[in-house]
Design a protein that fits this description.
The structure is a single chain. The protein has 335 residues and is of the alpha/beta class. It has two domains: 149 residues, 3-Layer(aba) Sandwich (Rossmann fold); 170 residues, 2-Layer Sandwich (Dihydrodipicolinate Reductase, domain 2). Helix content is 32%, strand content 30%. It is built from nine helices and 18 strands. The strands form four sheets. An eight-stranded mixed β-sheet has the order 10-11-12-9-13-14-15-18. A hairpin with a 7-residue loop joins strand 16 and strand 17. The N and C termini lie far apart (48 Å).
Length: 335
């Protein structure tokens, strides 16, 4: 195991998967105090060379099995294609390592259950990489909801669209919708009871590249998600509409990622004994709260390291990751 720097034992980390997203984990963990990025496994030699070009001390492997046999690690990040998440994460947990697995946690609820059981049995930390939960802007929205700024929440809607990246391992729902399902559950502190969905295969005959999803939450709250790989208008928007205000989170707006619209409509029962409603439009300000921004992935990785050191439960734990997979499975059955 690692030595000590600044009084804390140096944790030895391995990264499995150095491609599109895994290279970001390589960058962050290679620059984290009291952490050593000791090894990385990636079957594609070109991606391995690109991600590790300036990191001469990181031992490289073409497969995870060899890395686990030869290295003495504390924890592993799994950033491989979604369909491999279960096998790779299970191998790492069985080797006695704490695991941060990228979203989606697995591709079936049954796999999630097995992974969680293995983590409990081996007393290992199992964390799922739902990065938006660690986004300071998303945490601000959660704080505003908790303080009652929205009032009674009516519905939440999300649009996550762009041209590509068209993935070959999963469809657009499994690629994009986990972010919004996770945020909806986080904001509402609830799980959807029912799902409606329709998907389209416009770019491929084998997988959906666009989908419209409706989620029914407790207390009558509705969730709506639109995802697409085929839309020329790139959007990363979540809106919460309530009785007192509408909150907008725009992930592409670096200056004002969160705005509060206090204009709205209110309904009051008339005092005439007939129980009729009187509707009144309400004017109000548009407020952009101050948010101290930080890179969400770095915040998430720091949280993972803190959980490994403290042996504590992550905010995005296996149960949270499983719930997202449950919803995605339900969506798949409806399309």
């Amino acid at each position: 195991m690692g030595g000590r720097r600044n009084g804390a034992r140096e944790l030895r980390i391995g990264v499995v998967g150095c491609g599109h997203w895994g290279k970001n984990h390589v960058r962050i963990f290679s620059n984290m105090p009291n952490v050593m990025l000791a090894a990385a496994a990636e079957r594609m030699a070109s991606e391995r060379r690109t991600a590790l070009a300036n990191l001469l001390g990181v031992r490289q492997y073409s497969d995870v099995s060899t890395m686990l046999q030869r290295e003495h690690l504390d924890a592993v990040v799994v950033a491989t294609p979604a369909w491999t998440h279960f096998d790779v994460s299970a191998a790492c947990l069985s080797a006695g390592l704490d695991v941060l697995v990228e979203k989606p946690m697995c591709t079936t609820v049954a796999q999630c259950d097995k992974l969680m059981a293995l983590a409990r049995k081996s007393r290992r930390v199992l964390m799922v990489g739902h990065t938006f939960m660690y986004n300071p802007a998303v945490q601000k929205v959660k704080e505003l909801i908790r303080k009652g700024v929205c009032g009674k929440i009516y519905y939440i809607k999300a649009r996550r669209t762009h041209l590509g990246l068209v993935r070959e391992d999963v469809n657009a729902v499994w690629d994009l919708a986990p972010h919004d399902v996770c945020m909806f559950n986080y904001f509402l502190n609830a799980k959807p009871k029912a799902v409606q969905a329709v998907g389209g295969r416009f770019l491929s005959k084998t997988r959906e590249d666009a989908a419209f999803i409706n989620l029914q939450y407790p207390k009558g709250v509705i969730g709506n998600i639109i995802v697409s790989w085929a839309d020329s208008n790139k959007e990363r928007i979540v809106e919460i509409v309530g009785s007192k205000a509408r909150i907008l989170f725009d992930d592409l707006n670096s200056l004002e990622p969160v705005r509060i619209f206090q204009k709205g409509i209110a309904a009051h029962i008339q005092a005439d004994g007939f129980g009729e409603f009187k509707y009144a439009l309400r004017d109000g300000d548009i407020v952009s709260p101050h948010i101290k921004m930080a890179e969400p992935l770095r915040v998430m990785c720091e949280h993972f390291i803190a959980c490994v050191r403290r042996r504590s439960r992550p905010m995005s734990d296996g149960a949270q990751g499983r719930e997202v997979v449950r919803v995605l499975e339900m969506v798949g059955h409806k399309m």
